[in-house]
From TrEMBL:
Species the sequence originates in: Actinacidiphila cocklensis
Similarity comment text for this entry: Belongs to the aldo/keto reductase family.
Full protein name: Uncharacterized oxidoreductase MSMEG_2408/MSMEI_2347
SUPFAM superfamilies named among the record's database cross-references: NAD(P)-linked oxidoreductase
GO molecular function annotations of the record: oxidoreductase activity, acting on the CH-OH group of donors, NAD or NADP as acceptor
Enzyme superclass (EC): oxidoreductase
Length: 278
């Protein structure tokens, strides 16, 4: 079976660099999708309270029969639970819903700069970590200014920052901040939900290396050192997105794809997104 490379996070724990994303997978489709991913060889699943499919993700992980230590499971604190006590209670619900003893990584999903106080939220995350029921804590969609505040006012450097990254949004500044402070970058929407797959620079490289545009784009992320978890409910794509380790891009290919940046988001801007679910 293909060996997925792992990265070591700043607290010493290991994370598979390729995983499987579950955003926009309906609960009734989640068990099958995650099972297909685990059967293919993925050993890292990314979910969130917001996705409404934690129960089914946990079920699929338990059904797989794989030792718990062999599957890396990430979830995220939903917007609306940023107050200290609310965050702890929401984390307890995640463990109940997943029906797992622990999660490998738990993230603050959005900073919500105009709503709550993410420093208070982060202190709750530190408490979760102390409880031993999460192996690493991190953030998602944090800009350098938000990270700077955490570094100044709290004792724990986030292990990861999960942000939107793809060839049209290369996120040089946030990624460099992470590198400087030992915060690993996780790239969400790594193929921009399909929007980059017709780009002529990517399709030309794909033709030359005899791989698909999605494989070329995912390989670009891996060679830049980021962690990725493409989502698909299509078994052939789940398989395709896993076959990234039998070819390599040249430094020129990597530079050409990075050169496609146009600071174009597919999702919300973290500086102005302050949405809280009902
Ligand atoms: N932290 C955050 O705020 C945040 C936000 C968004 C996403 N995420 C995480 O990042 C994961 C990935 O991002 P994403 O789901 O937004 O987008 P993505 O992985 O960039 O793209 C998924 C879309 O591309 C299609 N697709 C997948 N593989 C393909 C292939 N080989 N060829 C052609 N099309 C393909 C999928 O279709 P089918 O499913 O129909 O095959 C789906 O429509 C999420 O699932 C979630 O875990 C986190």
């Amino acid at each position: 079976m293909t060996q997925i490379p792992s990265l070591t996070l700043n607290n010493g724990i290991s994370i598979p660099q390729l995983g499987f994303g579950t955003f926009q997978i309906e609960p009734q489709d989640t068990r099958e999708a995650v099972r297909a991913a685990l059967d293919t060889g993925y050993r890292h699943i990314d979910t969130a309270q917001m996705y409404g499919n934690e129960k089914e993700v946990g079920q699929a992980v338990r059904d797989s029969g794989l030792p718990r230590g062999e599957v890396f499971v990430t979830s995220k604190l939903n917007n609306g639970y940023h107050a200290y006590g609310d965050a702890l209670a929401a984390f307890a619900r995640t463990l109940d819903d997943l029906d797992l003893e622990y999660v490998d990584l738990f993230l603050v999903h959005w900073p919500l700069p105009a709503v709550g106080d993410y420093v208070e939220t982060w202190k709750a995350m530190e408490e979760m970590h102390r409880s031993g029921r999460v192996r690493a804590i991190g953030v998602s969609n944090f800009q350098p200014s938000h990270l700077e505040r955490l570094l100044r006012e709290t004792a724990t450097v986030p292990a990861v920052n999960q942000i939107e990254v793809h060839p049209y949004l290369t996120q040089d500044e946030v990624r460099a901040f992470g590198t400087d402070h030992g915060i690993a970058t996780e790239a969400w929407s790594p193929i921009a939900q399909g929007k980059v797959l017709d780009d002529p620079v990517i399709t030309a490289i794909a033709e030359r290396v005899e791989r698909s545009p999605a494989q070329v784009t995912l390989r670009w992320h891996l060679q830049r050192g980021d962690i990725v978890f493409p989502k698909s409910v299509t078994p052939a794509r789940v398989e395709e997105n896993f076959r990234l380790f039998d070819f390599e891009l040249t430094p020129e290919d990597v530079a050409a794809i990075t050169g496609l940046n146009r600071d174009e988001r597919t999702g919300p801007d973290p500086d102005t997104f302050n949405w809280i679910p009902d």
